[in-house]
Amino acid sequence: VAGRPDPSVPPSGVSCSGCGAELHCRDGAAPGFVPAEKYRSLSEGPGGAAGLRGAVCQRCWMLAHHGRALRLELPPEQHRLVVSAALRRPPRHGRGPLLLYILDVLELPDPVLPQLPGLLGPDTPAAGLLVVGNKVDLLPADSPGHLGRLRQRVAEACAQAGLRGAPLVDVRLVSAKTGFGLEGLVSRLQRSWRCAGDVYLLGATNSGKSTLFNTLLRSDYCKSRAPDAVDRATVSPWPGTTLNLLKFPIINPTCDRIFRRQERLKEEATKTEDQLSSEEQMYLNRLKKQGYLVGEVGRTFQQRKCTPVVDFDPDVLSYSIDEDPRHSPRKHEEREEFTYNEVKDARWCFDTPGIVKENCVLNLLTEKEVKLVLPTYAIVPRTFILKPGMVLFLAALGRVDYLQGEKPAWFSVVASNLLPVHISTLSNADAIYKKHADRELLKVPMGGEERMKEFPPLVPQDITLKGIGTTEAVADIKLSSAGSWVAVTAHAEEKLVLRAYTPKGTALVVREPPLLPYISTIRGARIAGTAAYRTKKPPSVVENLKTARRR
């Protein structure tokens, strides 16, 4: 932590615009800390504590500008208490809130979804629940209609969670990062919920809630002036970035506004990529590199900004040859604020702290390791054909042993492209792990022998599967709740005996049926002399744009 704390200064009563924690300079290890020097310079001006509005705490600053995460003395239960207290507030406007539950599709079955009734409590039922499956842009299409199958998996997860107290309104698939499905989500919210009450974004850590909050803030779902008056939430791969409630006011979707919005969407749907501006094409190409599914999120209602008046001061321009030019002092740029009438009856969209996942490998990793483990770009599947007696390492975080079987089987790794995969034999596997667990071959964890001394050992779990065909996986072996798994494909009726390893204290899940059953077909030719196939990356798809005809 840079800068010194000052325990004598009382808290400000002003929230950090990035994570929602109350700003203070009392304790460097507590949420919302601002170094005492900076805190005084902001709060001792003519506006007093109001000078802190729009400021961010040191943690958000380090995350946003340096990609570094500061450890906080904050128990995981604190996030749950903040969310539960917010949901149990008395209903505003005579109606309970709509819950917008953000679910990471890579993490199915979602570990936090069954906890939702406990967060609500028995006496505070929500008016509705809309489940959003996020990060679909990271997964390749393994067959036609794969999105329909993913949507069905999300709906099944809701049914298995035994949700009660909030009727399920809909299930949507989106990418908060690339914008895919976001215009459809906004239209669904405005059609079904309109402006009936508040909306709460809920979900586990790293599900993409804050990214979705920022995207909705720059969409037709918020009031036209909100992007200028509300700061964006801090977004980071580090779990638990948001620490308190953030919010923006929801626009009232009147008939006129809905009509104008539909006209804009119709007009944009007639465009091709070639008709976009060079700046829009560059942005679109960048998104295509990040995800398989891309969508453009536009705005129909934008606040017109006045042209600034330039003050002309002839005295500033007149100076002798012996003098340096004089510069007029820059005027302080006033921060836009909502008026009382704009928000007195407003319905708000709240971003809440993510619920910390138990038994997740991310809780064991350093900040550099988290960046390698969490998938942030389109996942390119890596397929290997293994015989009995062979072993697959996914970094030093997971291991799958093929113990018994009559024929070779295919193991497709769906994980961050930065994580290495190493194939070995059963007789050499233990020696390889002991020698390379802290080195470049297996990469994560990193930090040498001292790091491995504190890292928990891998513990085994035996798995028996029966193949259903050479093109369709029978199950996913989901490793440690970090968006990583190995899909197993085997000959029909072929019995496989496997042993999978994950770090002690983390959860291993066998997912049947698999999320992408035909993932092993997304591959190139076999690499001679190895167990690996060449990788193949499917093309990206852009929604809301007309496909140009090729001559």
TrEMBL record:
Tell me where in this chain the G domain is found. Answer: 199-249
Q: Which UniProt keywords apply?
A: Coiled coil
Is the keyword Coiled coil in the record? Answer: yes
Which Pfam family, any one, appears in the UniProt record?
YqeH-like_C
NOA1/YqeH-like C-terminal domain span: 411-512
Annotated GO molecular function terms are: GTP binding
Q: Which CDD domains match?
A: YqeH
Residue runs in coiled coils: 255-282
Q: Which PANTHER family match?
A: NITRIC OXIDE-ASSOCIATED PROTEIN 1
Instruction: Specify the protein name.
Output: NOA1 protein
Origin species, per record, is: Steatornis caripensis (Oilbird)
